């Protein structure tokens, strides 16, 4: 088994193992590389040859199947938008949300997943803000600087 090494100039950008599949389809698809175009044309996803490569985990596959079942018209589009959230935000955060929704027997719609991502960001931002400590500076050091500057200026004109 070989290795594929991608270079940009003299720097190695990515290293991947060579894939040899017994099914005849030899591919390694990173959904992050193609998700934007699939979101624009969600109809292409249904017959996409490498569609099975676009499920980062079993939770994404379960979410996809539930969306297709409950929303036959736009389930694929919702799944692709959820996958896009995973690509631009955090795959692990999206998977955690999917896992909770699946455990509660809820179909993870894009709107609900997006809302939870935004709530998580808001909570993280609020905790970061609450950790900020503002120290009030002592004005005495500024007064002493001002006094020294005025005293020096007075001595120049004497």
Could you characterize the architecture of this molecule?
With 158 residues, the protein is mainly alpha-helical. The chain has one domain. 59% of the residues lie in helices and 8% in strands. The protein is built from seven helices and two strands; from the N terminus they run ββααααααα. The chain has helices at residues 31-40, 43-46, 58-70, 75-88, 91-103, 110-130, 139-156, and strands at residues 3-8, 11-17. It has a two-stranded antiparallel ribbon. The radius of gyration is 28 Å and the shape is elongated. The N and C termini lie far apart (88 Å). The mean pLDDT is 85.
What topology emerges from the helices and strands here?
Blueprint: E1 3-8, E2 11-17, H1 31-40, H2 43-46, H3 58-70, H4 75-88, H5 91-103, H6 110-130, H7 139-156
Total separate domains = 1
Order of helices and strands: EEHHHHHHH
Q: For the record, give the distance between the C-alpha atoms at the N and C termini, rounded to a whole number.
A: 88 Å
Q: Quickly count the helices.
A: 7
Oligomer: single chain
Q: Major β-sheet, in short?
A: 2 strands, antiparallel
Beta-strand residue fraction: 5-15%
Structural class: mainly alpha
Give the radius of gyration: 28 Å
How much helix, percentage-wise, in residues?
55-70%
- Low confidence ranges: none
State the shape. Answer: elongated
Provide the spatial order of strands within the biggest beta sheet. Answer: 1-2
- Overall pLDDT metric: 85
Number of strands: 2
């Amino acid at each position: 088994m070989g290795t594929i090494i991608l270079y940009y100039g003299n720097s190695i950008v990515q290293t991947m193992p060579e894939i040899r599949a017994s099914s005849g389809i030899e591919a390694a698809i990173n959904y992050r590389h193609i998700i934007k175009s699939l979101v624009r044309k969600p109809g292409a996803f249904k017959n996409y040859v490498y569609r099975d490569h676009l499920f980062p985990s079993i939770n994404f596959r379960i979410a996809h199947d539930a969306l297709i079942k409950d929303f036959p018209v736009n389930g694929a589009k919702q799944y692709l938008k959820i996958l896009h959230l995973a690509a631009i935000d955090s795959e692990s955060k999206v998977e955690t949300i999917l896992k909770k929704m699946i455990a509660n027997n809820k179909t993870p719609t894009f709107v609900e997943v997006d809302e939870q991502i935004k709530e998580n960001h808001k909570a993280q931002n609020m905790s970061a803000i609450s950790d900020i400590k503002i120290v009030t500076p002592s004005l005495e050091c500024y007064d002493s600087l001002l006094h020294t500057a005025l005293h020096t200026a007075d001595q120049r004109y004497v």
